[in-house]
Design a protein that fits this description.
The protein is an alpha+beta fold and about 120 residues long. The protein contains 1 helix and 5 strands; from the N terminus they run E-E-E-H-E-E. About 40% of the residues lie in helices and about 25% in strands. The longest helix is centred in the middle third of the chain and has 48 residues, at about 50-95. The relative contact order is 0.07.
C-alpha cells in the first residue's frame, strides 16, 4: 500500500468490550506525514446493553417528537400565510369598490332654464 521500502503497521484498538468495537488504524513506520486510515467495525450489532437500548429508544422518541413539532410549526406557518394572503386580497378588492375617486371631480351638472349645461 505504501511507497517502496515502507512498512505499514496495523493496530487494533479495542474501544469498548461490551460493543465488541474495534478501531483499525493504518499508519506508516517512517515519520512522513500521511493521512491516517481509520475504520470502525462492530462484530455483533445485537449485542447491546440495556442502557444502550434505553438510550436508543429515548433518542428515537425525541427525534419523533421533534419531527412532529416541526410538522405542526410548518402547518401553522402555512395557515398564517394563507390568512395574510386572504387579508391582502380582500383589502385590494375593497379599495377597488370605493376607490376614493369622485365622479366628475366632485362637480355635478344640471341644465338651466335656457337649456344650457351648467357644472356646479
Amino acid at each position: 500500500m505504501g511507497r517502496r521500502g515502507e512498512q505499514e503497521i496495523q493496530c487494533v484498538v479495542s474501544l469498548d468490550r461490551c460493543l465488541s468495537t474495534r478501531l483499525i488504524v493504518m499508519y506508516s513506520t517512517d515519520r512522513t506525514p500521511r493521512p491516517v486510515t481509520a475504520s470502525v467495525t462492530t462484530e455483533d450489532p445485537n449485542n447491546r446493553t440495556k442502557r444502550q437500548r434505553q438510550n436508543d429508544k429515548r433518542k428515537e422518541q425525541e427525534q419523533a417528537n421533534k419531527n412532529l413539532a416541526e410538522k405542526e410549526r410548518l402547518e401553522r406557518l402555512a395557515k398564517h400565510r394563507r390568512e395574510l394572503e386572504k387579508a391582502r386580497i380582500a383589502e385590494q378588492y375593497s379599495q377597488k369598490k370605493g376607490s376614493g375617486k369622485v365622479v366628475s371631480g366632485g362637480m355635478s351638472s344640471s341644465v338651466d332654464s335656457n337649456g344650457k349645461l351648467v357644472w356646479e
